């Protein structure tokens, strides 16, 4: 698995380098309680013909809720429910694309992803692959996509991943877990309706929110930051604090966390994550730990590196009675532990962002093992 | 002059209304010290042929600086220097469009505006009018533009107006001062290079920065706000405070004010300005006072409405030794004063945003006159 490449292009934009990424932003966004009901109107001008459907990819948890009934299904539009229990896969994207091509004579007018990071990433990938030949795994990397994606819209139903604004879709391929990073990946439209995050279970809400919080702590204390990303990251962090430690009412809390995720996602334009993400990747590789909880598992033990951030995190965790699993690394074989450490240390830019160019002098395989064994 | 219409569509998005604007964002942004030198590379793929030029509209103050030499002029590209001493006019847009059509056989590949709000607004308007028939004044209003603008990029050289992210270009027409508000108005590309704001004179820097500050104070205390705009407005306000009252070095200060302007501009998506803007519009109509300084002239006397904001403003003004002109309204005839008051009171949504639905009970022609006479 080529984890190193996954972050290799998020190189510092300051100091020696005078080149800055020309960042693609989501060109259209609507925000508001209940704005989901504007979806039909938003999609109407995007419909090419009555034979070119809109395909809705929706998190399976909504299958028996009132949400599907509110989806503006017209003509031969199709709703496909997809489980978000596992990470999205290139093979899954290929199957979806094949299914859509077999089922319809015309290419869809658009793909709409409704759900968390997994559904949003699938919607991005499917919309790309409907216009590009071959398997999705051929496009994992940077700027390998030759043709624009078909129109795609993202509608988050849980807040924190920032997938709604990013230019990547991270997929598990046959050989590697790696994003399709391209200017065509970014959504054409995002719809932010805080009411859609109403029924999220507390633990999921916490882990996904912490994805944003930990991202902010890591990027704001990192060496890759510039004023653009700093301003977004600071605002996202401030809103996370309000949401997880403040006295907001539930409606305000949903709204603020949705905006925190948005700003946190924007802050990645010119920033990089750090140690928690590097080590969480190791966990994910060896144990299949999901991204949000993996970050939490690692971050709680990083007080030496992010003292204030970890203190805040522990406060938030206590405040919301979150119990993290324990001793999950104690069962690992020596070989597995070694793999985990190697995967983590392979993510060089994250370590460099966190500890500076001489990061290798400040961290050792032994010190990583020590942290992992606490998890 | 139809000032009322100019803001009529910025109606509250909360409360009774369940409809939210689907806001067009700038789809591509690059930020960084020195990123101006990436302009050539950014424009290259936008060039349709060697006969379809890029037209650069540049603030005349740069005519004898090193900037024009850094502009990536290729083939038959043209630089046009334009004075920003006066507000941009529909007639000026028409002349520019006619000149470009006469001068070149093909439509330009793109228009690049380099300067403050005036130059950015001109670039937006010219790019629209090159693809739409008739005079620019026919398009003043909301969503009257039928065809997409040609590619246009904005490069601010002074921070605070937010014109770099807005979907309007405010023009003085034969009958009214009113924006061309449309989804085609928004720039296709923005380049944010804080170094370009280096030589701005202190008073201009202050007035334009206060455009952002006052906007934030008005929108954050207004009734039209939602969580999306609030998050942007709060960040912009915080950065204004850092810039005008903090201890930043000049480089940080330039970077933060550029980002404050950006976030302040984004915050207009779902917010509205207030009393200072309403009254400043009156000044502008009768006396030709420019927007930035006009806001300052009014705002200093609005302590009764924005106590904390005005206190901060006075601190900033003292800190930077800004002397505002005095007694500029004392010379007005009774008729002129009446016009000024009528123009200001005509901006109903601004008053409603500031004082609520019963704003008419809280403000009178007499109270406005009293404030104007202090200016």
TrEMBL record, chains A, B:
Alcohol dehydrogenase iron-type/glycerol dehydrogenase GldA domain location: 28-194
Keywords: Oxidoreductase
InterPro entries linked: ADH_Fe/GldA, ADH_Fe_C, Alcohol_dehydrogenase_Fe
Coiled-coil regions listed: none
Identification of the protein by name: Iron-containing alcohol dehydrogenase
Gene3D superfamilies on file: 3.40.50.1970, Dehydroquinate synthase-like - alpha domain
Domain Fe-containing alcohol dehydrogenase-like C-terminal: 207-311
Domain of life, source organism: Bacteria
CDD domains: Fe-ADH_KdnB-like (cd08184)
GO MF entries: alcohol dehydrogenase (NAD+) activity; metal ion binding
């Amino acid at each position: 698995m080529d984890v190193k490449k996954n972050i290799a292009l998020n190189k510092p934009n300051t100091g020696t380098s005078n080149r800055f990424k020309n960042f693609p932003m989501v060109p259209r966004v609507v925000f508001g309680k209940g704005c989901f009901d504007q979806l039909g109107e938003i999609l109407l001008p995007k419909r090419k013909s009555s034979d070119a459907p809109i395909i809705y990819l929706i998190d399976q948890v909504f299958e028996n809720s009132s949400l599907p009934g509110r989806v503006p299904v017209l003509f031969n539009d199709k709703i496909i429910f997809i489980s978000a229990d596992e990470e999205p896969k290139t093979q899954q994207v290929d199957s979806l694309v094949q299914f859509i091509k077999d089922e319809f004579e015309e290419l869809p007018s658009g793909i709409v992803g409704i759900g968390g990071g997994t559904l949003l990433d699938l919607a991005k990938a499917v919309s790309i692959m409907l216009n590009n030949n071959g398997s999705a795994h051929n496009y994992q990397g940077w700027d390998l996509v030759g043709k624009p994606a078909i129109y795609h819209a993202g509608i988050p139903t849980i807040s924190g991943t920032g997938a709604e604004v990013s230019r990547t879709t991270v997929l598990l391929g046959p050989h590697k877990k790696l994003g399709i990073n391209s200017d065509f990946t970014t959504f054409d439209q995002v719809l932010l309706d805080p009411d859609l995050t109403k029924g999220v279970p507390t633990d999921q809400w916490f882990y996904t929110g912490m994805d944003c919080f930990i991202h902010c702590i890591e990027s704001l204390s990192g060496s890759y930051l510039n004023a653009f990303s700093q301003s977004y990251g600071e605002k996202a962090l401030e809103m996370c604090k309000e949401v997880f430690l403040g006295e907001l009412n539930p409606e305000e809390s949903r709204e603020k966390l949705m905006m925190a995720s948005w700003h946190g996602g924007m802050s990645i334009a010119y920033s990089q994550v750090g140690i928690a993400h590097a080590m969480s990747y190791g966990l994910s590789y060896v144990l299949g730990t999901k991204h949000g909880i993996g970050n939490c598992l690692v971050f709680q033990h990083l007080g030496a590196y992010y003292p204030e951030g970890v203190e805040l995190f522990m406060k938030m965790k206590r405040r919301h009675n979150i119990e993290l699993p324990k001793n999950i690394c104690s069962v690992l074989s020596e070989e597995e532990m070694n793999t985990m450490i190697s995967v983590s240390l392979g993510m060089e830019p994250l370590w460099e962002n966190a500890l500076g160019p001489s990061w290798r002098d400040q961290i050792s395989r032994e010190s990583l093992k020590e942290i992992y064994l606490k998890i």
